[in-house]
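Exercise: predict the fold of this chain.
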Amino acid sequence: MRILILGTTMATLCMPMLGCEARRPSVDATAAPADASRASTAAAAARMVASQLGEVRVTTIASGLEHPWSVALLPDGDFLVTERPGRMRRIRAKGVVSAPLTGVPGVFAQGQGGLLDVVLAPDFASSKRIYFSYAEPGEGDTAGTAAATATLGATSLENVKVIYRQLPKLEGGNHFGSRIAFDRSGHVFISQGERNDRPTAQKLDMLQGKLVRLNLDGSVPKDNPFVGRGDARPEIWSYGHRNMQGLAIDPRTGKLWESEHGPRGGDEVNLPQAGRNYGWPVITHGINYSGFPIPEAVGTSAPGMEQPHHVWLKSPALSGMAFLVERPQSKWNNSLFLGALSDGSLIRLSLDGDRVVGEERLLKELGARIRDVRVGADGSVYVLTDEADGRLLRLEPPH
């Protein structure tokens, strides 16, 4: 496994309790208007921005979205977008933004919590089923990451079924993750964070800081690595993760790739394997936001713990991940895109097989936090900006 380390200095000091991931106030979902009056319905004029390979055409499809978190590309050219306060909207191809869909479960919209990822089921064309993740409120002030399925209707979610709950639920508003991805064998992977409670990532009887693998109906696959162990949760695929906000299958190989936030420094990309320990908080390339070492850390390596496939010493605060591959006509062919929050950029990693051989950062001139990224069937790249007036953008690769 190849490790590349970029950057030579630590990240700018982040908010001690929220970290690089979230520099925004909590939002009350109950205060949201019921109509789409906040959202723009007209796409802005396109602009050209520079890149290493030529000019990129950037078009605003829609704006006025309140801290949008995830976008799913619908087969008819429309988009399904989540807003962190707890709303899901449909955006028409020409930019018309719907009123919030009904049927979305209540979310824990505090700190970094809220409505998170949304993806189309592998059989969406026939089932109209979607999967989504969110911070689910528990008793008292507790919460945990959850995932559900639903049938997408014209104005609502129907047949909502929770298929996963992070247990136990903990207090606090940080590190929920979460992304969803499907392998080629009928499994769904759900990423999450360790809820800013570092030791939980190493505890196999708790689900915090774990990547989980389930069957599509939420049941536990019999060949999961910890099935049958009385001291471990059977849902776990890998552990020792901090706050996973990127997850994607490489279309070339079927391998799962995952990205996560480090603390102050040490953002990682991993290719998570069954039963492996990815080290947090025992090994890390970062330090505390205070500038002091992580109390549990022994260094950057330890026996029985995996090294990251790729690591940044200065944290860009990774969120969202998408492959653009098998498109030899595109100048962006064989690229992995990652959103960057604190860096305010879209990171493009050049790939040679699994090896990362180059990097460029796009959209810095926008001055916006990039929360999600997806690649369309036409080779365009779609991104969400995480702002009170968030935007859905389309990027056309340079010619």
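Check your answer against the key: The first strand starts at residue 5 and ends at 6.
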